[in-house]
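WARN retry 2 of 3 for item q-0093 after timeout on previous attempt; input resubmitted unchanged.
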Amino acid sequence: MLAKKMVYLILFSMVMFSVPASAETEAQTTTAKGLFIELTSDSMFKVRRAFQVGTMVRKHHDIPVLINISLGASRFADKTLPLAAEAIKVRGSTVHEMMSNFIAAGGEVYICPMCMMGNGVANEDLLDGIKVGGPDVVLPRLLEDGVKTLSY
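OK item q-0093 returned
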């Protein structure tokens, strides 16, 4: 009798643990339909990281990647910002070069219009390829099915 109960317990355990494993495998093989990176930090290293990751994804995966710049990160979109974005090179590239490389790889960059104003960035000061966004532009992209998100 005890042996019969053990067999049932083992079979029950195998059934219970096999379902999550197959679901996990299915989830791992599902490809994202896009990547949305929200960049709010004014840390130059986090700004660089967002553009490094975005460029890497664009180069290795055929999915759209959008970086939305807001809050303190907005000042880095200013082509006239000399020290933090132009003069300091980390691993051979400036922040502006990394932004340009991301755009050249097919990435999209939008900036929050209110954050621009708050950081004293005018439209004519934006790096080439950066577009003024806002909720009407970026929220539909963020809410698309299958889009993964990162935040820096």
